[in-house]
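Co-fold these.
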Amino acid sequence: MNNKEIAKILITGPFNSGKTTLIKFVSDEQLTGNDVEATDELAQYKAMTTVGLDFGVLHVDDDLDVHLFGTPGQARFNFMWKTLSKGALGTVFLVDSSSQNAIDEAKQMYQFYSELSNMPIIIGATKQDLPQAKSIQHIATELGIDDTRIIPSNPCIKEDSKNLIIALLEEIIEKESQTQDAAFSV
Amino acid sequence: MPKVTQTFKQLPLLRNILTNKRSGSIHYRFSSQAFPEKINVTTKQLSGSDIEQQVQNLITLPTYACEWNSQIQSTPGINTDDIIPCICAAIKKATWLPHHALALKRSFLKMPAIQVDLPNPAIKYPDMGAYMALYHFTKNNPDSSPANFLETAYEDDDKIRYLKVLVLVYCLGFMSSKTSKKESIATRILNRIRKV
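Predicted complex below.
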């Protein structure tokens, strides 16, 4: 009987922010959600979009697997966010830098995830290479956070995808190893 | 008027003195005070009622500024058995304004997973029920943090009792951080993902 331990990491962010691609690069196995033709106002941005879940598995060792859940970006799936976040180690939050609409949507999503019982979150700003991309400072201001907490990232580059997960894991480790005394610092 | 940052930074200093079993002094200033005060923790002064009141103030009031005076650290060590009753009594009588209790609670919410020692026989803390609840909770839930423990309090009275017992075990050094399961798992994943 296989008694492997399962850890969970969420990859989230609004529509078209690069979640599916990131999961592809950091998983040993990937079960892609159903890519369907985007409809309504989304179709002008992306021909295909994920409905349902993206899911990847990374085999860590004989006793541990990581399940990577890509949460649906569309706001109409927000009922799933809370369920999926239960028991997760942390969240990689991707924001499409090239669209003010996406940044506006990210604000609402970020608010939700940042209120989840101190769950570590790393923010990746994607599509920074596009000419219309908003600056990191602009995105930080919109999300109400310090710009040092945002990492420019191109999920199409494997190393960038890895680095986001690494940054999240480092944050988890730092948070967990925080000494008791540091809790009394501002 | 600029917002004054209020913290309970004095608690790590108090704990430092108590767990190192040394005499020492904490210079502190509450936000309403113009000039700093000083608390000396020495064996000689422990029997006075004043020190109990001072400890009670340190536990209940956020400070605007506080610092540790290391100059007298080399003086003879204090006797923990002497100070435990003093701390217990101060915590027993402690009351917080709601926003001060919230500020103190916030600090405990930031703490990582802990383990708590069995009660020292010298402790005659009046609310041993809360102490044992904390002890058993951390023993039965190896990854539990003070935040998880505080979540188990449903009644308002229990919330204050649980906060007080956390202050007690923290100040006396009866709680220690542990490498949490989360940290261990994250480290294993980190090592793996670097090879992807």
